[in-house]
Prior knowledge:
5-stranded parallel β-sheet, FAD/NAD-bd_sf, flavoprotein, alpha+beta, 23 strands, binds dihydroflavine-adenine dinucleotide, FAD/NAD(P)-binding domain, elongated, 7-stranded antiparallel β-sheet, Elongation Factor Tu (Ef-tu), domain 3
Amino acid sequence: xxxxxxxxxxxxxxxxxxxxxxxxxxxxxxxxxxxxxxxxxxxxxxxxxxxxxxxxxxxxxxxxxxxxxxxxxxxxxxxxxxxxxxxxxxxxxxxxxxxxxxxxxxxxxxxxxxxxxxxxxxxxxxxxxxxxxxxxxxxxxxxxxxxxxxxxxxxxxxxxxxxxxxxxxxxxxxxxxxxxxxxxxxxxxxxxxxxxxxxxxxxxxxxxxxxxxxxxxxxxxxxxxxxxxxxxxxxxxxxxxxxxxxxxxxxxxxxxxxxxxxxxxxxxxxxxxxxxxxxxxxxxxxxxxxxxxxxxxxxxxxxxxxxxxxxxxxxxxxxxxxxxxxxxxxxxxxxxxxxxxxxxxxxxxxxxxxxxxxxxxxxxxxxxxxxxxxxxxxxxxxxxxxx
Length: 387
Ligand code: FDA
């Protein structure tokens, strides 16, 4: 039996950050993972350039049953702190849009940086073996990893959520949490494309067409691009609203978010021979599909009332998704280990000393755009202060 001060389960962003910081605070830490390499989701993130944080990361850009839970960790380890770390490692970066920060080079640099930090903390990393029995008795956690048994007074659950199983993602965090008396908020795929039913199939013919929109689900609204796919809808605006969408609900899309009220009647006065499709100033295939559904050809032939109705429909076009593309395609998971059982300051389980949960495993899910990694770093850092 090998003994440590802390065992971290999961060599993703949260686990590596937590282990590195705790190691540098003098703790003897081991990180265990079944994947053959660390940080696989970091490697594929941001199109290979890793959108590693967002300048605007704050709790109001995260979904959680407790919207206040993320405040403490995000406030104590900020996007600026992570940028400072990236710069200390000489990694060049740039802001793409909407506060999203990416490596100029490769996501590999972020993994290498985390491994360097872990090495500086003397962290042991063991990969490529399945996790076996996890036990707890007399204040000591024991974990089987391959042929070894490891023991420590602290256990950090950092095994993420079940999105993208082909990368090694599993729901083990939830099994462990339940086993140790923590509740789990029902996990759902999030930041995921939505599928459309047969009656909305007309739009599938538009596969590949993208346009800037405002997409809405419930009270959430996002001004970004939407993309039609052969199964339904995708693109950043749709991925964002997918985290808020519930089965049975419609989503609304404003296809002309920048148009002034009354723009279609004004267009008729200015150019009565123009067609609705022509007046829409959208990609041609999309404009034609929308105009056909609305049933207006030449603007001059339509009444002002019909054009006002068309304008209202275009500002809140209703789609009725019949599902999502599921965990296979979801960037993250909404839901997870219930925050009610955890300290927002240290991520420690309230009723079981020594148990911690961090990162995507916890019921805290960020918007698209670097928010989820910032939560991984911040929650990992917070737990490391208490280890
Ligand atoms: P993460 O999933 O990274 O790590 C968990 C670790 O636990 C993995 O190494 C896994 O192998 C291990 N594990 C799981 N089950 C196990 C088991 N049963 N036994 C042993 N080990 C086990 N976010 C962002 O902010 N910016 C971005 O650019 C992107 N881009 C992006 C692209 C794609 C395609 C995806 C799928 C996701 C993103 N994300 C993102 C989201 C981001 O990747 C995610 O939120 C973080 O990786 C979560 O970090 P964690 O460390 O919590 O889990």
